[in-house]
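pasting for the record
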Amino acid sequence: MNRILFQIYRVVVPKPIRTAILLKTLRLKILSYYASIPEEQLNDEIREVIAWLRKNPLAIFPYDFVTRYRKEDIEVLTDPDNSLKYVLYEGKRLYFRRGWSKSRIRRAWSDLLREQDPESPHRYLITSFEPGKDDIFVDIGAAEGNISLSVIEKVRKIYLIESDKRWAEALRATFRPWKDKVEIINKKVGDGNDSNNLSIDSFFEGREFPTFIKIDVDGAEDKVLRGCNKVFQSGKPMKVALCTYHKNDDEKIFTAFLENVGFTATPSRGYMIHYYDKKMKAPWLRRGLLRAIR
């Protein structure tokens, strides 16, 4: 489709219909691609995804666990002291941005629960890979802070780093009971430093280095890694949960990077189909993240 026809298509065809067409077309492309590969050359996890796709519409998480989370079942409450809405997560209040409706929060929270399901390829923490009482935890790309809230009572210190300042008020409300061990930083993490950006190396200059780092920054993970040279070169025992689903070759590139600085990196189980990436190409299936230990 040339550029002019594409622009007409975008104007004439509503976005929900365009999305439905995209998903149906992509599903057929994926099934056709893997049908051309002898089955004995596919690993068990790929076979599992293809079997699921033959029976179901395309989904970012091509697994049955996605049906466990219904937004209709989520209770959204309002704090009378600050008028912010929140959900209860493991008995703790998780606040959302001011102005978000209950329906939007229900959608967002059901997505987050799905994302961190025990069977999800996007799950950061598992029994053999989680922070402990002496850890300094850095949450890069914190957003609403659900992962940090899940470990807040297990760790010694948390740095919450989120570039979107619209989350600042909600994060302060969520972590107010633990404000003595939480620092919230509203900057973008990368490989440079100015009024709106910082590198992990510069931030931790003069501070005790982190021992557990989670990185999920919508495709800018490579910049974050480039800004971690001193921290990684320190040789300090450390764990890193690093998202690899945003770009086609991230898993391969990030595995080599982490192994080069002494980590053992293991991909999470299963695959994601990140159809929001317009540069997505075969083999289509991407690992959700790497769990790295040194």
